[in-house]
Amino acid sequence: DQPTSARGQIGPDGRYRLTTFRQHDGAIEGEHRVLVSPPPAVDRDRNPHPQPVIDPRFQRFETSGLSFTVSKEQAQNRFDIQVTPP
Description:
This protein is largely without helices or strands. It has one helix at 61-64, and strands at 30-34, 66-70. It is elongated, with a radius of gyration of 15 Å.
């Protein structure tokens, strides 16, 4: 079985909304391992090796240490995700 994943982009204010099947439908119920990817480099021509903005360990499920449980019992599932710089 292929795992079902949710994705979302972090906005300038630090907020995010997840999408699994339809835009902003959230994540399915259950425990989820979480990874955080930095935004894509905007200008790779001028800066082909941009400085990382988050610690690379957050970019892999195996090393991020992040997991959250989504529950139907909660009216809203809100999770604060904190990452650190490299």
